[in-house]
Specification:
This protein is α/β, with parallel strands linked by helices. The chain is 43% helix and 15% strand. It has helices spanning 5-27, 42-57, 73-85, 104-110, 122-129, 138-149, 169-178, 193-197, 244-247, 261-285, and strands at residues 32-38, 61-67, 91-94, 158-162, 182-186, 202-205, 223-226, 230-231, 238-239, 253-254. Strands 5-4-6-7-10 form a five-stranded parallel sheet. Helix 1 (5-27) runs parallel beside helix 10 (261-285). It is globular and about 55 Å long. It starts with a helix and ends with a helix. The protein binds guanine. Guanine binds next to strand 3 and helix 6. The site of guanine has 9 residues, from strand 3 and helix 6.
Length: 286
């Protein structure tokens, strides 16, 4: 079974849209998401465009701030601080990666935790790892929703996460652990990686290498979630970290690229933005 992220994302966005219409009646304005893009990396440009499009689709106010990659760290931090102070801005997202002369950690820490729709702020990360209420990072949140939608049981299963990034691998592993899976975090330097992967009931792949996972690394009947977004070296076509054609028949469920995790990340960003907005409005009313 191929799990369509596009379809589930559409359902989530419909739900957000309904809640936005209600929120406008109650609070007099829709949530406002501000996305900051530094530089002209084509992949980042495409992601940011998608986020803006989805924000408009669900009825948010959406602003994209584009800055050249020559912007100083100081200037970028000042933009964020102004957005922090702006009561009519509910969510702030700085598209990563940033140019090397800008300290990403400093940028993420500067975003007000209550406006951190990505769930990257250290206080949000700590809350996730301590099982306190938090904003869940969008991609791992989307992965769990896809597994649930496909009817994959997580509890008691062996999950293997390939990749250990702050954005995907680590939080995805933690969220699977919190659903009572037994989790192994593997990476490009793991010895016997293929064997480890082949033991997984749930295989989450975020290793950033085109068609890295082949059929021999997939346990028969496994659920395979492909987080990769790569270009095929030969054709330039979009492809995942999983060799889809090679692995499809071995997996019980598998996500395609494109149309799998990608749209789910954006749908979860819309949910997170609405959540930040509602939390603020409810607090203001108390
Ligand atoms: N770059 C790649 N994925 C993401 C994401 O989820 N959020 C941000 N801000 N940057 C990214």
């Amino acid at each position: 079974m191929i799990i369509s992220g596009t379809q589930l994302a559409k359902e989530i966005k419909e739900n957000v849209k309904t809640q936005v219409a209600e929120a406008v009646k109650t609070y007099g304005r829709p949530p406002h998401l501000v996305v900051i893009l530094v530089g002209e990396d084509p992949a980042s440009q495409s992601y940011v465009k998608g986020k803006g499009k989805d924000a408009e689709e669900v009825g948010f106010k959406s602003t994209t701030i584009r800055k050249p990659d020559t912007i100083s760290e100081e200037e970028l931090l000042e933009i964020i601080e102004n957005l922090n102070r702006d009561d009519e801005v509910d969510g702030i997202l700085v598209q990563l990666p940033l140019p090397a002369h800008i300290d990403e950690d400093k940028v993420i820490e500067t975003i007000l935790q209550s406006k951190d729709v990505d769930g990257f702020h250290p206080a949000n990360v700590a809350a996730l790892w301590q099982k306190r209420p938090c904003t869940y990072p969008c991609t791992p949140k989307g992965i769990i929703k896809l597994l649930d939608k496909a009817g994959v049981q997580i509890e008691g299963k062996k999950a293997v996460v390939l990749g250990r990034s702050n954005i995907v691998g680590l939080p995805a592993a933690k969220m699977l652990l919190d659903r009572n899976a037994t989790v192994t975090i593997a990476h490009s330097r793991t010895k016997g990686l293929a064997k480890t992967a082949a033991e997984a009931d749930i295989l989450v792949v975020a290793i950033g290498k085109p068609k890295f996972v082949t059929e021999d690394m997939v346990k028969p009947g496994a659920a395979v979630i492909d987080v990769g977004v790569n270009r095929e070296p030969e054709t330039g076509k979009l492809c995942g970290d999983v060799d889809f054609a090679n692995c499809e028949s071995k997996a019980s469920v598998i996500t395609p690229v494109p149309g799998g995790v990608g749209p789910m990340t954006r749908a979860c960003l819309m949910e997170n933005t609405l959540e930040c907005f509602l939390n603020k409005m409810k607090k203001n009313n108390n």
